[in-house]
Amino acid sequence: MVRPPRLASVVERRMLVNYRVDPDAVAPLLPGPLRPQLVRGHAVAGICLLRLGAVRPAWAPAALGLRSENAAHRVAVEWDGPDGVESGVYIPRRDTASRVNRWAGGRVFPGEHGHADFTVDEGPDALRVAFATRDGDTRVDVTAEIAERLEGSELFAGLDEASAFFRTGSKGYSATASGTHVDGMELHTDQWRIEPGRVLSAYSSYFDDPDRFPPGSAHLDSVLVMRNVPVHWRPLAPLPTRAAA
Fold this sequence. Notes:
With 245 residues, the protein is mostly beta strands. It has one domain (7-239): Acetoacetate decarboxylase-like. Helices cover 8% and strands 54% of the residues. It contains three helices and 14 strands. Strands 1, 2, 3, 4, 5, 6, 7, 8, 9, 10, 11, 12, 13 and 14 form a 14-stranded mixed beta sheet that branches. Strand 8 (126-133) and strand 9 (139-146) form a beta hairpin. The longest helix is centred in the last third of the chain and has 10 residues, at 159-168.
């Protein structure tokens, strides 16, 4: 089996739209051995709206890299590893506007991707990111502005606490079509920095779906923004799974 390459890129924009969710509502969506990671009694889920630039093998010059708009639905999870409890995120769905990502995801590097069309309106103090998947399954439209501090969150007491939580959750495991395992990728950066945001409007067909999340079980909590951060992505060994409950 060919070992997936270590990738380098720049996170030009990463908007984390965070929901606090009833653990009993999200647990059935997770394959074993994953379970919800709780913060103040809530499961933490959300959408990562990510534009990557200069994506290339780590050994290649940045000028040869590609640029793409991407989205990932995420749930903060934990599981029992060989050295104790580990934490990260489970990604039930990834979508991208990039043909290269759609072809390479699950083949050249971990993470199978669906096809989506994106609309982006971005300035220094406010941004809107929307996308709709070509299969008609998922639609998202979020507008937010950069804020001086993180306010109104019931998950995190402030920006420092939120930043630490997401920095330690750097391992991401993505659902695969086979259902026998999840693909793993880990984010590394020496220049981690994140800004607080304020949501002006948000729609998510995933989190607003009453069949998936009964009314009152998922609440929009907060938004965080990362911009212009160089990162590396390290493939992880696939994690065998059991079917979701």
